[in-house]
């Protein structure tokens, strides 16, 4: 049985719209191509390694990080320093003071102060042959000190080159000067008239450099830097830009076991800069916290003293009234007093007095917020609560009011910056007042509950006579005022103690230090792996694109599965100089393959023992080896004692005569036109049973000659003489001549060349076979080589293009195929 031989039932199993349709992607072939192009992966790996090495050495900007740990003590009583007594949820634990400090560390006011105090808007760097390196201020031999009253151009690199003897050359960029300059006083931009680029100038230390867009002087660094620099590049930035950049590089975390320990880290391009910033930042926080605590505690002491003075007057008045009743009404010894009820009422009214005192303190805090008089703010513990979030919101509100005052000197009330700052103030106020509202609600709810309990206790005293009830009311009033006085006195003592013993509640555990820490980013190993991986991905993408664009037939199994056409045999690559493989290499594997094809052909033909069998050999286009198959198939039949003739009916491109060394002066074209007889075109070969009729000169009308009745009669006449007639016909992918000749053939052989025949070319022949328009059809898979060689070596073949004959110049491939072929050329696809 022929491999792949199907019955008509089998043909119907393939839907007609699927006939000749191949899979878009062959994973097996893709992997083989990757292995075949291994040298590209080696090359791209070396390229990637070289690029990653250059990147890490010359281009990667190292980012360093330093950290500082501090402890927040629990003895805080200041309004601006909320204490730890009330915990809150921060992740899985934490403290309110931590929230406040974190907001302080990220606040604009705090970082703006540091930017101005440390001149962090002046950035230093140096440039080598390729790479720029950021410097700490102390790494520079001189500092740049600007004149803040003069407008300055920001983001404009100023190059300072040492010239010796305390002189430096100031070099400005060739272009980039602008008329929009920045004022460090108002922190905004202003426009000036156009000007020419300032010329380079040599200045001495402490000498002012003046230009329309800059004014500064160089100040000698008191510390001699450890490195010698050929150039220092100074870049000025705006205050807002500097603050934003700093805030984006700060991180705050709390210790998982002890929530009062805070770890602050800072990232930057220079390790010393991060260390100096952290230590200065925390030192400023300590100073500010102590000032805030003292201010608030003093305000609280003054407020409580005023309240005590007022309560003292009321207490004296209540004592006088109570003594009068005792002496005048003789009510100091009431019989049958209900001491239990009286004691309960006394306790309840003492609690109420304490709550009323807290409400009064709340009123003071609320009024201070409304009046924006933050310097008079009292501590929240005077109102009986500690709320870090509230304190932080008030701190933010205070900073926003200060900022609005600054902006008011620059912008009009209806401007966008003023609208934005007012919006932020309203949000902060709403947050603050909502917090106070919650405490008001809480206190009033407790007061109402106490009033209800007092009323219930009073019901037990209704049995007393009127005079005795009058005395008891006076006594209760006195007790309530006395309780209020005691509560205020205790708070005042706490406040005075805090003022006397105050110290910063921030203690540095581990200050930031330069311990030679390595960079935290970029991750050089990951960067190298990424670069090398990307370079290795390039050949994979090229092979993948080439694979997706490649439409060549490379898989015998897929070919048979799609076409359902039986396979007669597989021919390996021919490495000889001509096409006479069977004659000159009879013991080769290729010759043996042709003998197998000879045996398999009997399955295609009916009554294979009859004389005069016509076998037509064709293909899709030129270059697929149909002539090679025709010659060797005829040779193997002739060598098997079968009288055989090989007809060169490819009239457009004669070829057979060259291998057999036959004169092509007269051939089939001459016979079909009636110029010569049949005896004049039949040539003998060195194989006794093999004759050859060449094509002859190329005629102007090859199709008409091949489809003429004379050609039909010619074939019929040869059938009477020969056992086998092998027809080397034109390729069916370009002309329809072969389809006409197939009407008179007993077997049709379609040659498919490995890695050469296009998949789309198989669609037409497959459809005709599935529709039973062509019968007795078999495939020969030619030039199969697992090492991917094209083979043949007969230099006069059709070539690898589609230039088969002159008529094919008008043949147009499908649009998608033309696009694909052009892209293949771009990828150097073979």
Number of strands: 23
Morphology call? elongated
CATH superfamily of the largest domain: P-loop containing nucleotide triphosphate hydrolases
The Rg value, from CA coordinates, equals: 51 Å
How much of the sequence is in beta strands? 15-25%
Largest sheet: 8 strands, mixed
Helix amount, in percent? 40-55%
By helix and strand content, what is the structural category? alpha/beta
CATH class of the largest domain: Alpha Beta
CATH topology of the largest domain: Rossmann fold
* Number of individual domains: 4
Give the end-to-end Cα distance, rounded to a whole number of Å.
36 Å
Q: With helices defined by DSSP (H or I, 4 residues minimum), what is the helix count?
A: 23
Strand order across the largest sheet? 16-23-22-17-21-18-20-19
**Average residue pLDDT:** 80
CATH architecture of the largest domain: 3-Layer(aba) Sandwich
Instruction: State the low-pLDDT regions, or none.
Output: 1-10, 75-94, 788-811
Short description:
The protein is α/β, with parallel strands linked by helices and 830 residues long. It has 4 domains: 27-60 and 524-549, no CATH class; 70-283, no CATH class; 292-504, no CATH class; 556-788, P-loop containing nucleotide triphosphate hydrolases (Rossmann fold, 3-Layer(aba) Sandwich).
């Amino acid at each position: 049985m022929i491999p792949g031989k199907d019955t008509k039932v089998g043909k119907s199993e393939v839907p007609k719209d699927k006939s000749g349709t191949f899979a878009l992607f062959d994973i097996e072939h893709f992997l083989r191509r990757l292995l075949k192009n291994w040298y590209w992966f080696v090359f791209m790996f070396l390229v990637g390694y070289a690029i990653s090495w250059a990147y890490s050495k010359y281009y990667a900007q190292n980012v360093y990080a330093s950290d500082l740990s501090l402890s927040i003590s629990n003895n805080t009583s200041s309004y601006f320093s909320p204490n730890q007594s009330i915990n809150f949820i921060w992740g899985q634990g934490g403290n309110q003071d931590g929230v406040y400090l974190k907001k302080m560390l990220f606040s604009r006011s705090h970082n703006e102060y540091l930017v101005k105090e440390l001149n962090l808007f002046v950035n230093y760097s140096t440039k080598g042959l390729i790479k720029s390196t950021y410097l700490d201020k102390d790494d520079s031999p001189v500092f740049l000190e600007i004149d803040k009253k003069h407008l300055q151009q920001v983001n404009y690199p100023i190059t300072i080159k040492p010239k010796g003897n305390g002189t430096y050359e100031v070099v400005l960029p060739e272009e980039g000067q602008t008329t929009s300059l920045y004022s460090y006083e108002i922190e905004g931009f202003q426009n000036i008239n156009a000007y020419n680029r300032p010329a380079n100038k040599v200045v001495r230390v402490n000498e002012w450099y003046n230009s329309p867009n800059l004014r500064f002087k160089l100040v000698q660094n008191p510390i001699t830097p450890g490195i010698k620099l050929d150039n220092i590049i100074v870049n000025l930035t705006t205050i807002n830009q500097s603050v934003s950049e700093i805030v984006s590089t700060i991180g705050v975390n709390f210790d998982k076991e002890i929530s009062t320990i805070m770890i602050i880290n800072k990232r930057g391009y220079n390790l010393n800069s991060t260390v100096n910033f952290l230590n200065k930042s925390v030192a400023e926080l300590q100073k500010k916290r102590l000032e805030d605590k003292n201010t608030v505690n003093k305000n609280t002491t003054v407020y409580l003293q005023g309240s005590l003075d007022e309560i003292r007057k009321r207490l004296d008045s209540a004592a006088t009234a109570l003594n009068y009743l005792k002496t005048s009404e003789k009510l100091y010894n009431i019989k049958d007093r209900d001491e239990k009820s009286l004691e309960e009422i006394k306790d309840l009214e003492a609690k109420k007095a304490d709550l009323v005192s807290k409400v009064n303190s709340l009123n003071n805090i609320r009024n201070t917020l409304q009046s924006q008089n933050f310097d008079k703010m009292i501590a929240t513990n005077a109102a009986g609560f500690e709320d870090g979030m509230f304190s932080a919101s008030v701190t933010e509100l205070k900073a926003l009011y200060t900022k609005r005052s600054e902006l008011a000197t620059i912008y009009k009330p209806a401007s966008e910056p003023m609208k934005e700052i007012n919006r932020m103030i309203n949000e902060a106020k709403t947050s603050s007042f909502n917090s106070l509202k919650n405490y008001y609600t809480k206190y009033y709810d407790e007061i109402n509950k106490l009033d209800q309990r007092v009323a219930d206790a009073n019901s037990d005293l209704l049995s007393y006579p009127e005079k005795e009830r009058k005395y008891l009311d006076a006594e209760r009033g006195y007790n309530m005022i006395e309780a209020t006085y005691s509560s205020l006195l205790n708070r005042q003592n706490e406040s005075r103690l805090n003022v006397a013993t105050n110290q910063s509640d921030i203690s540095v555990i581990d200050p930031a230090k330069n311990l030679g820490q390595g960079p935290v980013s970029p991750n050089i190993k990951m960067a190298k792996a990424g670069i090398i991986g990307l370079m290795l991905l390039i050949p994979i993408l090229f092979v993948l694109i080439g694979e997706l664009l490649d439409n060549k037939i490379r898989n015998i199994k897929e070919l048979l599965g799609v076409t359902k056409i039986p396979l007669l045999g597989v021919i390996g690559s021919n490495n000889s100089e001509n096409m006479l493989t069977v004659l000159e290499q009879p013991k080769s594997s290729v010759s043996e393959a042709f003998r197998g094809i000879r045996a398999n052909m009997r399955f295609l033909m009916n009554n294979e023992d009859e004389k005069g069998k016509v076998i037509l050999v064709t293909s899709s286009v030129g270059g697929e080896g149909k002539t090679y198959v025709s010659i060797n198939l005829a040779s193997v039949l002739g060598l098997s004692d079968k009288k055989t003739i090989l007809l060169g009916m490819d009239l457009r491109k004669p070829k057979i005569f060259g291998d057999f060394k036959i004169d092509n002066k007269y051939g089939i074209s001459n016979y079909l036109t009636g110029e010569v007889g049949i005896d004049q075109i039949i040539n003998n070969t060195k194989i006794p049973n093999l004759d050859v009729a060449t094509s002859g000169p190329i005629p102007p009308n090859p199709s008409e000659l091949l489809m003429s009745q004379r050609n039909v009669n010619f074939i019929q006449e040869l059938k009477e003489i020969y056992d086998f007639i092998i027809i080397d016909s034109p390729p069916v992918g370009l002309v329809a001549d072969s389809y006409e000749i197939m009407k008179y053939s007993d077997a049709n052989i379609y040659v498919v060349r490995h890695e050469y025949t296009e998949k789309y070319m198989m669609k037409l022949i497959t459809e005709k076979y599935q529709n039973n328009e062509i019968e007795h059809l078999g495939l020969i898979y030619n030039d199969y080589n697992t090492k991917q060689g094209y083979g043949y070596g007969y230099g006069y073949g059709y070539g690898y293009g589609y230039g088969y004959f002159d008529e094919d110049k008008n043949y147009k491939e499908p649009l998608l195929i033309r696009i694909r072929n052009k892209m293949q050329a771009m990828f150097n696809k073979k």
